[in-house]
Design goal:
CATH superfamily of the largest domain: 3H domain
Structural class: alpha+beta
CATH architecture of the largest domain: 2-Layer Sandwich
Strand content: 15-25%
Number of domains: 2
Strand order of the largest sheet: 3-6-4-5
Distance between the termini: 53 Å
CATH topology of the largest domain: Histidine-containing Protein, Chain: A
């Protein structure tokens, strides 16, 4: 299969899928290396395909029209031991965490897609940090970071903001 055909098939798989697909899975399916898949994804992104790389694999982000209307970025602070509590606070109130962003003094803005929609997603994320013995991105900025959060309504975003503030996470 040539590269163009493979890229079309990757998009079809991501459109049809309800779960992220890892680069390794895609590489096996198409009989190529994972690096080839990474290059294909980069080319697809360059052609306006909104493919996100999450800790669980690749997803095609189409966007929920309802949630797109209600998006807010929160500047927050906490240490690693509070990650799960912060994420639970957001998803329990009906929000979805799209990403984490840090402003590094040398490297500038670093953003990573998270796509955390539930407690299970949050638990899996924290487990992967432990499993791979990595440090969260927020360690680069001593706990200060941003999250883009979507929700079905402005009032849910307001409730999330109040809850994060009450827990001492919100930076105003």
């Amino acid at each position: 299969m040539d590269g163009d055909s493979r890229k079309k098939e990757i998009v079809k798989l991501l459109q049809a899928g309800t779960q992220p697909i890892s680069g390794t899975e895609l590489a096996k399916k198409f009989g190529v290396t994972r690096q080839i898949i990474v290059q294909d994804i980069a080319l697809l992104r360059a052609n306006d395909k909104n493919i996100l790389s999450t800790n669980k694999g690749y997803v095609l982000f189409v966007g929920d029209k309802e949630n797109e209307k209600y998006k807010r970025t929160f500047k927050v602070y906490h240490r690693e031991d509070k990650i799960l509590n912060e994420l639970f606070t957001i998803v329990d109130l009906g929000g979805s965490v799209l990403d984490v962003v840090v402003e590094h003094p040398i490297y500038g803005q670093i953003m990573v897609d998270l796509i955390i929609n539930s407690r299970l997603d949050a638990e899996n994320f924290v487990e992967q940090v432990k499993e791979y013995r990595t440090k969260p991105l927020t360690d680069l900025t001593e706990g200060v970071h941003f999250h883009t959060v979507t929700a079905p309504s402005q009032s849910i975003l307001d409730a999330i903001e109040i809850a994060l503030d009450r827990k001492g996470y919100l930076i105003k």
